[in-house]
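User: Show me a protein chain along with its predicted structure.
Assistant: Here is one chain, sequence first, then structure tokens.
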Amino acid sequence: MKNLIPSWIRVPIVFFIIFGTVEFFIDSGEKPAFIEYPAVMLFLLLVLLILIAIEAILGALENVMLHKLDDEAKAKFLAQNKKSFKFTWLKETYQKLLGQKPMEEEGEIILDHNYDGIKELDNNLPPWWIYGFYASIVFAAVYLLRYHVFNGPTQIDELETELADARIAIDAYKKTAKDLVDINTVTQLTEAADLSAGKIIFETNCVACHMADGGGGIGPNLTDKNWISGGGIKNVFKTVSEGGRSGKGMIAWKALLKPLEMAQVSSYLLTFEGTTAANPKAPEGDIWVDENAE
């Protein structure tokens, strides 16, 4: 067996069997085990060095044993080594693909041309070239029928399809990525963590104008149903982001707050509606009714 398979094939085969076994039994998530765990890489390198060392030791032992054999035994041993596996099929396949005649038969295809003693052979085209040419003809016929006769999808159609899929994927991602919300995608947050964060932002930045209980001071009352720039999460988010009325409304907070923070504080101040403030300011603006509400 050793003579049939050379060492430069045995070592990689055994190494990759061990490598595959390690990857199969070690759970490393999406990354390969030798990248996720440096110790695995060191182990694999050690295994490779051991395999190479074993081959070197076996070769050295063979040489030592060969010198201790008599002439008849040496001849028998060398004869067995000559029977080692050779990749003759690769050479034969290569010659078939070239389609060349053996040198002994080249006399049959020598042309009458003679250029200072240099003669020309009438070789056929290589079979691989001919088969490739026939394959290109078949491909061209199929392509013609598919895209010019039966109007198959063009590159522009494929691009538009991919762009549409990308837009759908982006919209789906934005729904789950709170940091990417905008006026069009914002929704009212109801989780306790978001409302708690919104309360902190409100108490830090908004109390001076709207009071801690939302009753209003410099700014409008948040506990009634009247809104100057429209109610609902989208209108409130827009007002917080872009600012209030020009010259007398609040500043635009988009330069100071992140989109998620604006969504949190907008959701929190909506919870004031319907509550009772200690000293509520008179209603301002118009009563806002959500057209999408049932």
